[in-house]
Design goal:
By secondary structure, this protein is an alpha/beta fold. The structure holds adenosine monophosphate and zinc ion.
């Protein structure tokens, strides 16, 4: 089975080829660990996780490397503020990140290199670039990449070199006020930053003096080391990384090693909250903890973040989260009905049917699987699953067909990383007083006393809960 994915470089959907004799090399730029990852970060990491699962199911042997950015302006500044050693400070955030990943059912990558452990590799890379005259040392001992020396610079973003302003020919005729003022050109970027007092003890010795690597460098060095200097098959990141970060990665790697960095580029669109860009000042920068405190399960968040097209910006809303919780419940009910038909209970499902096994066919859900293999169309995949649920097929199927259907659903849920029937799926339960109000409202509705039912709904909402009816009961969701 082959998997097709949009490639930012060629601007087209291309098949991901299965390499001969080695795993599929897949690298993603990882988190910067100076605080908790937010739901926007997780949109990107989750879609990367789904792709890795789809590849696995399609028979690819995937080597997935995702780095940790622990040496940069922000990690250094925050560790200094906290008076903590950089490694101790970042370790706390790495652990928090891992625990969020676990709650969101993300598979750990095969390898997770930290920039801090690759300082000497980064210095070697700079040396190679200086030797080939792709980099130069500034007056203060900082080292810059000479963009004009790299003919291919701009190829990922289709930016012409002449569009990149030079310091000497600033079109406005003004002086360049960038702090790195000894760059030959304004588009040159730092590979090495000379030691500054505010870096505290975070500096390393190099042939150009004390300092630290620039941020773009780490991925080039870690990719080279993790994938044995070979061209990788896929490189992922949020769309904001496309320029300049990925352009700079290409320039550094290809100029130093003279081999293509990567054959396929995978960028996911950003998440906005209620139509606005996420930011601390707007107070809409949410973490998994914030979502859980509102009583929403990690699985409902996962579902929300992966269920729409990864190439379209996602407008995150709390209504959407509640709808995801309902969707998960619907899937669980459908599975329960299937299990009941063959005398199994929900406890059997995860053990018996959620498996990373390679299925040759997906039967009634063939189109759902095809959608995942065709540019990771998670929305169409879920649409197919709900189409089947809506057609109410349980009574029409033989036991063997039900068993087959459970296997297909199990594999699809594995590909999507959606867990059912466990603690990560359940929303927090409402307090007993709210449940009582909900019961009274249910009774009022059964007695067709709609005015009373509406009044009780208002009371329930005043307690911070919303109520939704199902054919046989009601469900409560935190507002
Ligand atoms: P960072 O921790 O800032 O280095 O980012 C980690 C990953 O999250 C990168 O791939 C970013 O492109 C991605 N990212 C950052 N903000 C968002 C957002 N609002 N929506 C989706 N992805 C994001
Ligand atoms: Zn990177």
């Amino acid at each position: 089975m082959s998997v097709k994915l949009y490639d930012t470089f060629s601007r087209s959907i291309k098949e991901l080829s299965k390499p001969n004799g080695r795993p599929f090399y897949y690298y993603c730029c990882g988190p910067t660990v100076y605080g908790p990852a937010h739901i926007g970060n997780f949109r990107t990491f989750l879609i990367q996780d789904v792709l890795s699962r789809v590849l696995e199911l399609a028979g690819y042997e995937v080597k997935h490397v995702r780095n940790i950015t622990d040496v940069d302006d922000k990690t250094i500044a925050r560790s200094q503020e906290k008076n903590q050693a950089l490694a101790d400070f970042t370790q706390e955030w790495i652990e928090k990140f891992h625990s969020d990943c676990h709650a969101l059912n993300m598979k750990p990558p095969s390898h997770e290199p930290k920039a801090l452990d690759y300082i000497s590799e980064q210095i070697d890379l700079i040396e190679a670039l200086i030797k080939k005259e792709h980099a130069y040392v500034g007056k203060d001992g900082s080292v810059y990449f000479r963009v004009q020396s790299c003919n291919a610079y701009g190829k990922l973003n289709r930016i012409n070199q002449s569009e990149l302003k030079t310091q000497a020919s600033n079109s406005a005729g003004q002086a360049n006020l960038a702090d790195e003022y000894d760059r030959e050109s304004i588009s040159d970027f730092a590979l090495w930053k000379a030691r500054k007092p505010e870096d505290g003890s975070n500096y390393w010795n190099s042939p150009w003096g004390e300092g630290r690597p620039g941020w773009h460098l780490e991925c080039s060095a870690m990719i080279h080391s993790s994938f044995h200097g070979e061209t990788i098959d896929l490189h992922g990141g949020g769309i904001d990384l496309c320029f300049p970060h990925h352009e700079n990665e290409i320039a550094q790697s290809e100029c130093a090693y003279s081999t293509p960095l990567c054959t396929h580029w995978f960028h996911s669109a950003h998440l906005k909250v209620e139509g606005e860009k996420m930011s601390k000042s707007l107070g809409n920068l949410f973490t998994l903890k914030d979502i859980q405190e509102k009583g929403i399960s990690p699985m409902a968040l996962r579902y929300t973040l992966i269920s729409s097209s990864y190439r379209q910006p996602l407008n995150f809303t709390f209504e959407g989260l509640v709808a995801s919780q309902t969707a998960l419940t619907k899937i669980e009910r459908f599975i329960e009905a299937l299990l009941q038909k063959i005398n199994l209970d929900s406890g059997n499902f995860n053990k018996r049917f959620i498996k990373p096994n390679t299925l040759n066919h997906f039967g009634l859900l063939e189109k759902a699987w095809d959608a995942l293999c065709n540019n990771l169309n998670t929305a169409a995949c879920l649409g197919n699953i709900f189409g089947l649920i809506g057609s109410n097929p349980t009574s029409k199927l033989s036991d063997a067909e039900i068993e087959d259907l459970l296997k297909s659903i199990g594999s699809l849920l594995y590909a999507l990383g959606i867990q059912v029937f466990n603690d990560q799926t359940k929303a927090l339960s409402a307090p007993q007083s709210v449940i009582e109000l909900a019961k009274q409202r249910w009774d009022a509705k059964q007695n067709k006393d709609y005015a009373k039912a509406d009044a009780l709904r208002v009371e329930i909402q005043a307690e911070g809960w919303d109520i939704k009816d199902t054919p046989t009961h009601f469900e409560l969701f935190p507002l």
